[in-house]
Amino acid sequence: MNRPLILTSVAAAAAVLALAPLAFADGPKTKITEVAPKDLPAAVVKVIKAAAPTMTIKEAELKEREDRRYYDVEGTLPDGSEIEFDLLEKNGGWEIVETQRDIVWASAPKPVRDAAAASGKTITPVRVIESTQNDGMVIYELFAAGKPEEPSMEVSLKDGQVKVLEEVWPH
Q1: Strand partners, 63
Q2: Band of the pLDDT at 125, cuts 50, 70, 90?
Q3: Which among 168, 164, 167, 169 is positioned nearest to 120, based on CA atoms?
Q4: What average pLDDT does the segment 72-80 reach?
Q5: Which conformational region is residue 19 in: left (phi greater than 0), alpha (psi within -120 to 50 degrees), or beta?
Q6: Which of 134, 131, 140 is closest to 162 using CA atoms?
Q7: How far apart are the first and last CA of the chain?
Q8: CA-to-CA distance for 169 and 66, rounded, in angstroms?
Q9: Phi, psi of 28 (to 5 degrees)
């Protein structure tokens, strides 16, 4: 008689384990809202203009997840180059936590290019994003041809130390 109970318990445990990934997949979602440049809060614009006074803001998104609010603000500089700032709301104010811009791979620092070449991965990047973190670390995101969604390699540079990252940097 105990046998059916054991089988039922095993079956129940198996069902719970099988459905567990679905519970995690339903974790916190990011709410993304498009924001017209003219509708950005003055405090956000002030922080951006302090960092890039000549930037023309082209588009923005407000991202909300759990208890965090971010603005992704994209624009252009007078030379036509694009730049993006990610701002985090902190203690009632806004702080730039990441600055991104596209660069030509040949303009990346030589130690970064050397580390990528020595990694054993054969990547000829068709796009490179230079992502400067607020702690001074710079992440170089290398995109391979035909793979525009996720970087094929990321290389970090901080205080002269270069490292090919094994996991995607949590931007």
Answers
A1: 32, 70
A2: very high
A3: 164
A4: 95
A5: alpha
A6: 140
A7: 55
A8: 20
A9: -55, 135
Number of other CB atoms surrounding residue 123 within 10 Å: 17
User: What is the DSSP code string of the chain?
Assistant: -HHHHHHHHHHHHHHHHHHHHHHHHTSPPPEEEEE-GGGS-HHHHHHHHHH-TTPEEEEEEEEEETTEEEEEEEEE-TTS-EEEEEEEEETTEEEEEEEEEEE-GGGS-HHHHHHHHHTS-----SEEEEEEETTS-EEEEEE-TT--SS-SEEEEEETTEEEE-SS----
For residue 32, CA distances in Å to 46, 68, 112, 146 come to 22, 12, 33, 26
Q: Are 32 and 61 in contact (CB under 8 A)?
A: yes
Name residue, tokens 């603005």: 71
Tokens of 42: 């003055």
What's residue 171's pLDDT? 58
